[in-house]
Amino acid sequence: MKHLVLAGLLAMACTPAIAETVDGALIRVIDGDTVELAGERIRLIEPDAPEISKPRCNTELAKGLLASGRLRQLLKGAVRIERSGRTDRYRRTLASLVSLEGNVADILIREGLAIPYKPGLEAYQQRAAHWCPG
User: Fold this and answer.
1) Segment (H or E) for 124
2) For 58-116, how does the pLDDT look when each residue is reduced to its tens digit (9 = 90+)?
């Protein structure tokens, strides 16, 4: 019995706080890791995509436009939004998006259009060097 209770608690801890499936046509892509749905800004938890609103170099802008375009493609059809129940410092909902092709963050990272997100100044500098080498 004790093992069943523990298994149930672990399963609940791994379950997203709020999840829903929506038509991807209702989602507006802001950039490669941020979207908007009915006025709610949603930041993908897993990836960090190159910036397009304030890029650090022209290469980052070009890669950011590619990431945004690919995200638009991935969000065609049904999209599952798995909200974490948390927000970031900009008050965006932190969530994972799963399309018909799979977890969109995993796809963007695998295709080289995003890198895994890590917090902190050192990680910020590494991202800058990644998107703007040289």
Assistant:
1) helix 121-131
2) 999 999 999 999 999 999 999 999 999 999 999 999 999 999 999 999 999 999 999 99
Residue 89: CB atoms within 10 A of its CB come to: 5
Token duo for residue 86: 């948390």
CA separation for the pair 75, 26 (Å, rounded): 9
Closest by Cα among 113, 100, 74, 91 to 21: 100
Question: Which pTM was predicted?
Answer: 0.84
Tokens 């990836």, located at residue: 47
- The strand pairing partners of 20, in sequence order, are 81
Residue 46's closest CA among 8, 102, 91? 102
Instruction: Write out pLDDT tens, residues 2-57.
Output: 444 444 444 444 555 689 999 999 999 999 999 999 999 999 999 999 999 999 99
Beta bridge partners of 44: 95
8 Å CB contact between 105 and 97: yes
To which residue do tokens 């950011």 refer?
Answer: 64
Cβ–Cβ < 8 Å for 41, 89: no
Structure-token pair, residue 126:
């590494």
